[in-house]
């Protein structure tokens, strides 16, 4: 099979004899760890992006690495596609199963294998929840820095696959910056270790290459992460603004002042009201936008930085600047932000979350353009995002029961992502490409770049069996999407499969 098959048509994949495959899998797993009845498969038809659904042919739930190896080898021999899944909280359809494939659920690999306070590392299995790592490290005064909003549920394996971030990634980095080592299984079941326990390792940085590869290069079996000491002090400032443009400019002003906050988040009025009704965080509901700025470190430095940031915010036009008076209020401020997505879900039957990134200097103009697109498409948009690093999360509100609204929401989302690319940004900051953004990859990258991506995929997975149809579009798909001119009478890539 050529990995460049047309990912929109499962028919391009080889026919699979389900009964024969099921019988073969029973040599690797007990019956209770193989799901094959339709009612058993239903819960696995989507990840956190529930607008896209596909019923998998089979679901397997192994408990041991040897079982995973056996499954991969068997599927490789029979040319059966495999999609790995962690907690299923992803928001880009990255774990969307295939009708003619096996869904490999790694959720039962949920053991914390070692906390090493001296080395400040944690060695964990891929199904361990993000927050559980910090909870296990807390008795040693340590924590794991990346904190996506789904941290109470998302798994570390999925975090590595998507290179997840969170509200504190501005200062402490994404998943890739907090990793030391991952153990993986290749498509053939071969064990590889990428990275090392040392802070640096010789050779090409395959760990960085693998991080964010969305399950296309291998299956994670173990992760070693860095732990950080808890800051001596952490303070949060809440600033209210009478326009989103002023709030956007204030973000750049803070960074320009030489201050790198632990977190710098922005919410517009629609998101503010939703979060306040849901969490009662103490947000000013009359504000058009708020910024949450967390400063952490040594007590004296934090105190000085709070004074400096307060001055910057006031000069930027803040109508109110308030510091959390105690730890309980600081936690409430963050609870409102971290629960903004479910809070917005109370305003509309459905919402569609985008994940583009832009240069900070472009924030005011992009926010204005999003408001104009919202009016053009007749759909409300709530803006909640990591303002410090320009990672946008516009939430498009719609009702899937209203004919045409889902299509309009997808079209609006695509326009927002293309706007991000136009101003020098990216179509994704932390949610990944998955199935959702595959068309926008055609706007982000040219044919030479996409060909290189396919070459990397082929080096790890020549048969294209791991999570096919995600992340990297075929050149023909890009031509049909209208973002790339593939031929003009001559085919420059005659070896590529067209359909």
Count of domain modules: 4
**Computed CA radius of gyration, to the nearest angstrom:** 23 Å
The portion of residues forming beta strands comes to 15-25%
Q: How does the helix and strand content classify structurally?
A: alpha+beta
Low-confidence stretches: 1-11, 484-499
CATH overall fold name of the largest domain:
Uridine Diphospho-n-acetylenolpyruvylglucosamine Reductase, domain 3
Total beta strands: 18
Adjacency order of strands in the biggest sheet: 15-12-14-13-17-18-16
Name of the CATH first level of the largest domain? Alpha Beta
- Give the overall shape: globular
What helical percentage do the residues reach? 25-40%
Task: Please report the distance between the alpha carbons of the first and last residues.
Answer: 12 Å
The whole-number mean of residue pLDDT values reads 93
> Number of helical segments?
17
Q: Please outline the major beta sheet.
A: 7 strands, antiparallel
Give the name of the CATH architecture of the largest domain. Answer: 2-Layer Sandwich
């Amino acid at each position: 099979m050529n990995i460049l098959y047309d990912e929109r048509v499962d028919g391009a994949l080889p026919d699979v004899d389900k009964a024969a495959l099921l019988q073969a899998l029973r040599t690797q797993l007990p019956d209770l760890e193989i799901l094959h009845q339709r009612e058993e498969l239903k819960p696995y038809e989507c990840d956190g992006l529930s607008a896209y659904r596909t019923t998998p042919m089979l679901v397997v739930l192994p408990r041991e690495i040897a079982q995973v190896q056996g499954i991969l080898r068997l599927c490789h021999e029979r040319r059966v596609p495999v999609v790995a899944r962690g907690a299923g909280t992803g928001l880009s359809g990255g774990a969307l199963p295939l009708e003619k494939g096996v869904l490999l659920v790694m959720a039962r690999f949920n053991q914390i294998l070692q906390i090493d306070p001296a080395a400040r590392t944690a060695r964990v299995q891929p199904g361990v929840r993000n927050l559980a790592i910090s909870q296990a490290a807390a008795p040693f005064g340590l924590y794991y820095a990346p904190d996506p909003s789904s941290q109470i549920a998302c798994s570390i394996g999925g975090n590595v696959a998507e290179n997840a971030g969170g509200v504190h990634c501005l200062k402490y980095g994404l998943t890739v910056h907090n990793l030391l080592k991952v153990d993986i299984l290749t498509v053939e079941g071969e064990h590889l270790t990428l990275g090392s326990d040392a802070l640096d390792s010789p050779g090409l940085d395959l760990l960085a290459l693998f991080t964010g590869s969305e399950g296309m290069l291998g299956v994670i079996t173990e992760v070693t992460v860095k732990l950080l000491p808890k800051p001596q002090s952490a303070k949060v400032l809440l600033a209210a603004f009478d326009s989103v443009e002023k709030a956007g400019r204030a973000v750049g002003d803070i960074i320009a002042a030489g201050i790198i906050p632990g977190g710098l988040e922005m919410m517009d009025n629609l998101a503010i009201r939703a979060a306040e009704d849901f969490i009662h965080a103490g947000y000013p509901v009359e504000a058009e936008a708020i910024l949450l700025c967390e400063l952490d470190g040594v007590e004296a430095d934090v105190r000085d930085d709070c004074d400096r940031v307060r001055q910057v915010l006031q000069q930027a036009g803040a109508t109110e600047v308030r510091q959390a008076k105690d730890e309980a209020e600081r936690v409430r401020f963050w609870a409102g932000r971290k629960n903004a997505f479910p809070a917005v879900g109370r305003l509309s039957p459905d919402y569609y979350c985008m994940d583009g990134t832009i240069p900070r200097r472009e924030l005011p103009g992009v926010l204005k353009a999003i408001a104009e697109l919202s009016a053009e498409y007749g759909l409300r948009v709530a803006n909640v995002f990591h303002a410090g690093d320009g990672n946008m999360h516009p939430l498009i509100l719609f009702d899937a029961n209203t004919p045409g609204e889902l299509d309009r929401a997808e079209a609006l989302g695509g326009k927002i992502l293309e706007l991000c690319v136009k101003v020098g940004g990216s179509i994704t900051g932390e949610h990944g490409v998955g199935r959702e953004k595959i068309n926008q990859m055609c706007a982000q990258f040219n044919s030479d770049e996409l060909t290189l991506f396919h070459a990397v995929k082929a080096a790890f997975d020549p048969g294209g069996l791991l999570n096919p149809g995600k992340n990297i579009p075929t050149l023909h798909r890009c031509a049909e999407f209208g973002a790339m001119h593939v031929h003009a009478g001559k085919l420059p890539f005659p070896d590529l499969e067209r359909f």
